[in-house]
Design goal:
Elements (H helix, E strand, L loop, with lengths): L1 E6 L7 H14 L3 E7 L1 H9 L3 H4 L2 E5 L10 H7 L4 H11 L4 E4 L3 H12 L9 E8 L2 E6 L9 H17 L7 E5 L10 H11 L4 E6 L11 E3 L2 H25 L4 H9 L1 H11 L7 E4 L5 E3 L6 H16 L2 H10 L10
Parallel strand pairs: 1-2, 1-4, 2-3, 4-11, 6-9, 7-8, 7-9
Antiparallel strand pairs: 5-6, 5-10, 10-11
Helix pairs in contact: 1-12, 4-6, 5-6, 7-8, 7-13
């Protein structure tokens, strides 16, 4: 069994939605064990309603406090020592869980994860990475919100960790790394990206240079590196555009009876396209650079999206993500080629 600690109390939705998402993940993966962290009575009631085989793979881990979505990270670390978020991370530290998942406050989760787990040797700050749908399948992008600012050295570490994940989890032999900027020309960008650009050019990574926002989807790059402020804005923009397109298409195909007929004729194709771009299918971003695996789910994730975050945590644990990053950082020359 692969035990995953799941914070079912934090986030914008009710705990029942996150519990349902955890149960969906258990149904999808028969080797998973869920350590559900939160209000004991609530979890036990949900557990009791499950058939015996599924119930046997659920364990209740009580927690008496919840970190609010608007709570300051420092206060969450200092005052909420029995929060569901903190207890879930502690389960990873103790070895009871191989990974943890939370849909809670990103700043608080980042602070608690750094405080409890610490970063790997040589890593200054952990970063949040996730898959973004692209023309060639997926682009890995980081940081998506853990660090509002990043130094040139930290951006280079993000690039290294992104390359390791692309290679060891997704099987790319020589992942192409791009640094997000306002233009591809060498003269573009502020001093931080300019300094990071120079460092990456001298690294062992397959660094292709600056990339722009549209390159995230083009298939010309495998890993896009940026700071957490820019990355989070870009991610939320992508989600908003996907929702806009989906909503607009539904409106247009309902405009007249001819449009409804056209929609029926194209329904199978439209469903495939919508499914491929549905942000819920890509929910679950790993916080890389820590001594344990922490996965951040979107705060508004429904049960389907939350189950994907749990599956992402299981995937990272099975691939030994932490060990791969530690080994590669200790021998950076093994990561890839320095020639684009």
């Amino acid at each position: 069994m692969l035990p995953i600690a799941i914070d079912v109390m934090s986030g914008d939705r009710q705990p029942q939605e996150y519990i349902a998402g955890a149960l969906a993940a258990l149904a999808e993966d028969p080797d998973l064990q869920a350590l559900l962290v939160g209000e004991k009575a609530l979890i036990e009631a949900a557990r009791a309603a499950q058939p015996p085989p599924l119930r046997a793979r659920i364990e209740t881990v009580p927690a008496t406090e919840v970190v609010g979505m608007d709570e300051h990270p420092r206060e969450a670390v200092r005052r909420k020592k029995d929060s569901s978020m903190r207890v879930a991370v502690e389960l990873v530290k103790s070895g009871r869980a191989h990974a943890c998942v939370s849909a809670g406050n990103t700043g608080a989760l980042t602070a608690i994860a750094h405080f409890v787990l610490k970063t790997l040797p040589g890593v200054e700050r952990a970063a949040i990475i996730s898959s973004i749908p692209a023309a060639h399948g997926h682009t890995q992008m980081l940081d998506l919100g853990a660090n509002i600012k990043a130094t040139p050295a930290q951006l280079c570490q993000f690039a290294t960790m992104g390359a390791i994940i692309s290679r060891d989890v997704y099987g790319l032999t020589d992942p192409r790394i791009g640094l997000l900027n306002i233009g591809e020309e060498d003269i573009k960008g502020h001093e931080v990206v300019q300094a990071a650009h120079a460092l990456l050019q001298g690294s062992a990574l397959h660094y292709i240079g600056f990339v722009e926002g549209d390159d995230i989807f083009s298939g010309e790059v495998d890993v896009v590196v940026t700071d957490g402020f820019t990355g989070n804005v870009a991610l939320k923009t992508m989600e908003g555009v996907a929702a806009l397109i989906s909503g607009r298409m539904r409106q247009e195909f309902q405009a007249s009876w001819r449009d409804r007929l056209a929609g029926l004729a194209a329904r199978r194709v439209l469903r495939r396209v919508a499914g491929g771009l549905d942000p819920r299918r890509y929910n679950g971003a790993c916080m890389v650079g820590l001594t344990g695996i922490v996965v951040k789910s979107h705060g508004r994730a429904d049960r389907m999206a939350f189950s994907k975050a749990v599956i992402t945590a299981a995937l990272a644990a099975r691939h030994g993500l932490t060990a791969h990053i530690a080994q590669a950082l200790a021998a950076p020359q093994s990561i890839g080629s320095s020639t684009p």
